[in-house]
Design goal:
Layout: H1 3-13, E1 29-33, E2 36-39, E3 44-46, H2 62-81, H3 87-97, H4 121-126, H5 131-141, H6 143-152, H7 156-165, H8 170-177, H9 181-195, H10 202-217
Antiparallel strand pairs: 1-2, 2-3
Helix pairs in contact: 2-3, 5-10
Length: 218
């Protein structure tokens, strides 16, 4: 497409922000790379606006392109060789192989990516190929509570997370939620009955913590 046709189409079809439409004189762009774009005469421009709106990672970011291509290739290979048990399995396989090495440098905003090598206990979960096993951990230890919340309009799941976060301290939970200790103890008793778990020993609590981690990944 010629530069003249690009300009014509832009004026005809694009509603450009922050500009009076009748006085537009857009620059036809031939290519772009990183923070720069180039016109058809080879002049290079520094793009000072897109980094604020839709291109924080730059034009033609190779890491993103390679990750997308890799995910598509892996999905195609695995679908052709065998029927995957779930979309989750495809996602995890591709994530571990490609997205785990993706790093974002020189970010202009405070956005913290979740790197595979920093996921702690989730790395163990991601390494498990038996999806049914992971689902059973969640189903046996936490699903009853989530179903109860859904059916009764409660939020015991969030309460239990907070209780485990503070290592079973009723006082800390009461301070955090501005709820009386007696109410906290009542809610805990209800949760214990629903789950069939007394939450007293390390093993009992660890089962719930692991189930939460599995749920986050699933």
């Amino acid at each position: 497409m010629t530069p003249e046709k690009i300009v014509e189409n832009h004026k005809k079809y694009v509603l450009q922000s922050w500009s009076k439409q009748g006085n537009l004189n857009p620059i036809p762009v031939a290519k772009a790379d990183g923070i720069y774009f180039y016109d058809f005469d080879g002049n290079r421009y520094t793009d000072m606006s897109s980094q604020l709106v839709n291109l924080n990672l730059g034009y033609g970011n190779k890491a993103i392109g390679d990750a997308i291509i890799g995910v598509k290739a892996d999905m195609a290979d695995h679908i052709s060789s065998r029927k995957l048990e779930s979309a989750f399995e495809r996602t995890i396989y591709s994530y571990k192989k490609h997205w785990g090495g993706f790093k974002v440098d020189n970010m202009m905003f405070d956005m913290t990516p979740m790197f595979y090598d920093r996921l702690e206990v989730k790395k163990l979960i991601l390494a498990v190929d038996d999806i049914l096993l992971l689902e059973s951990i969640y189903n046996e230890n936490l699903k009853k509570l989530e179903v109860y919340d859904r059916d009764n309009g409660t939020d015991y799941m969030s309460f239990l997370r907070l209780y485990l976060k503070y290592d079973g301290s009723v006082q800390r939970v009461a301070q955090e939620t501005f709820v009386h200790r007696n109410t906290i103890n009542y809610q805990l008793a209800k949760i214990k009955r629903i789950l069939g778990n007394n939450l007293k020993t390390f093993e009992e609590r660890f089962k719930i913590i692991l189930a939460f981690e599995v749920r986050d990944v699933l």
